[in-house]
Amino acid sequence: MQVIDPAKEFSRSLAKVLKSEGGYSNHKLDPGGATMMGVTQRVYDAYRDRQGQPHRSVRFIDTEELQDIYRSSYWNTARLDKFPAGVSYVVFDGNVNSGVKQSVLWLQRALGVNADGVVGPATISAAVNHQNHDQLIADILAHRLAFLKALKTWPTFGKGWAARIKDVKATGQAWATGDDAPLPIARFAEVSPSHKAYASDIKAAPSPAVADAATGGGIASGGLAATLQQVQDQLTPLSYSSDLVGKVVAGLIIVSALLTVGGLAYGFYARRKKARIAEATQ
């Protein structure tokens, strides 16, 4: 059985996360806002408040503060000293990038335990006793990647996030098997700092309401198709005595058919897309 040194796991995990996070960033689309080495200005302000210190720019965060914030807010909160090597790092990286609750949800879904975003004895036991930690890491990161793709900021930051997950997976699985050999560092963060990925940026699911309006659902529903059907029903008796009215009725039949087919197709797409977003983010 692999012997875990919690101090070592935190130290090497922090070193990897800092490489992934990069330096200072304040991208207008980043929900984290001003961020230095993964610590946002809001988190830094709260930390300085607890220390009885005045606020200052996160650009000036020192090494002791940085380590204290990472240890207390992102490592200890998730009780990562209790987790297997590699798994603790993967959860830690997610904690920093998307928040502790969200990262723990990915872990719990991968384990198949109650997903409440809080690490308790059941979550720890399930992780420790999991028969294949390489596979567990892959499952955690699959949930994470699906979540990231459901964010409206994916088109902007997706390339960096995907590279980060690839690097995290390689490192986590190596550590899970006891391999301490140096691993390549993802180069994207050295060029461009990583950006936060929060649930607040989940893109809105398409609404099937347009499809429902197009396909009707009964005249009482007031749907567009139902309204056209009403007009068609009223004009049909007159079509026998007027070529113009007959052509209008034929046109209405065609329009109604197109609306129905298009509405059904869009309704299928909208419900499928909504289900995928729900699966990735709930």
Q: Gist?
A:
With 282 residues, this protein is mainly alpha-helical. Helices cover 63% and strands 2% of the residues.
Strand order of the largest sheet: 1-2-3
CATH topology assignment of the largest domain: Chitosanase, subunit A, domain 1
For the record, what is the CATH homologous superfamily label of the largest domain? Chitosanase, subunit A, domain 1
- Helix content, binned percent: 55-70%
Low-confidence stretches: 185-191, 273-277
Structural class: mainly alpha
Most strands sheet: 3 strands, antiparallel
Number of domains: 2
* Total helical elements: 12
Radius of gyration: 27 Å
| CATH class group of the largest domain | Mainly Alpha
Any guess at the CATH architecture of the largest domain? Up-down Bundle
Strand content: under 5%
**How many strands appear in the DSSP assignment?**
3
Write the layout of secondary structure elements.
Layout: H1 6-21, E1 24-25, E2 35-36, E3 39-40, H2 41-50, H3 63-75, H4 87-98, H5 100-111, H6 121-128, H7 133-149, H8 154-176, H9 188-191, H10 209-215, H11 224-239, H12 243-281
Antiparallel strand pairs: 1-2, 2-3
Domain Peptidoglycan binding: 103-164
Keywords: Membrane, Transmembrane, Transmembrane helix
Pfam families: Glyco_hydro_108 (PF05838), PG_binding_3 (PF09374)
Describe the overall structure.
- A hairpin with a 2-residue loop joins strand 2 (about 35) and strand 3 (about 40).
- The protein is an all-alpha fold and about 280 residues long.
- A three-stranded antiparallel beta sheet has the order 1-2-3.
- It starts with 5 loop residues before the first helix and ends with a helix.
- About 65% of the residues lie in helices and about 0% in strands.
- The protein is built from twelve helices and three strands.
- Helix 4 (about 85-100) packs across helix 5 and helix 7 (about 135-150) runs antiparallel to helix 8.
- It has helices at about 5-20, 40-50, 65-75, 85-100, 100-110, 120-130, 135-150, 155-175, 190, 210-215, 225-240, 245-280, and strands at about 25, 35, 40.
- The longest helix is centred in the C-terminal third of the chain and has 39 residues, at about 245-280.
- It folds into two domains: about 5-200, Chitosanase, subunit A, domain 1 (Up-down Bundle); about 210-280.
- Pfam families: Glyco_hydro_108, PG_binding_3.
- Keywords: Membrane, Transmembrane, Transmembrane helix.
- InterPro entries: Lysozyme-like_dom_sf (IPR023346), Peptidoglycan-bd_3 (IPR018537), TtsA-like_GH18_dom (IPR008565).
